[in-house]
Every structure is written in structure tokens, then in C-alpha cells.
Specification:
5-stranded mixed beta sheet, about 20% helix, single chain, 1 helix, alpha/beta
Length: about 80
């Protein structure tokens, strides 16, 4: 996988709630980037879409970021 997956190519997360969606983000990130280290997070708004941008360090030491489209579950507790 690339080091950066920008919001114009965001990973779509389908979930019914914030908790379910966040768990799906973490599971997906762990599957694609095993042994990554934690980092920062940023929420972005573009038109009617909501994005969760996660910054982390890959197992090989390279900095990376992945953008998730969280529109489906944003604000759904």
C-alpha cells in the first residue's frame, strides 16, 4: 500500500455508529499496515462529506497517512 491515501481516494467506512466505524477504521489499518505505530488524527469536512485522516508510522519507519470517509456514521452514537 502507498504511504499516503488522500481524501480524494478515501477508504469508505460503512457503519451504523461512531463506535462501529472507529473499530472498522482500526481493523482495516491494522490489516493493511501491520505493526504500525500510533500517531495523530484530524477531522476534515469537504462539502457534505466527513473524513477522518489518520497519521502514523509504518513498521518500516516511514511516515504514512490514510483518509477514511466517515460520512455514513459521523455523529451517530
Amino acid at each position: 500500500m502507498p504511504d499516503t491515501l488522500a481524501c480524494d481516494h478515501a477508504v469508505m467506512v460503512r457503519a451504523r455508529s461512531e463506535a462501529e466505524g472507529i473499530a472498522a477504521e482500526r481493523t482495516g489499518l491494522d490489516a493493511v499496515y501491520p505493526d504500525h505505530s500510533g500517531g495523530a488524527q484530524a477531522l476534515q469536512f469537504k462539502g457534505s462529506r466527513r473524513y477522518d485522516l489518520l497519521f502514523f508510522t509504518r513498521a518500516n519507519g516511514r511516515e504514512a497517512s490514510v483518509c477514511f470517509d466517515i460520512t455514513d456514521f459521523f455523529g451517530q452514537w
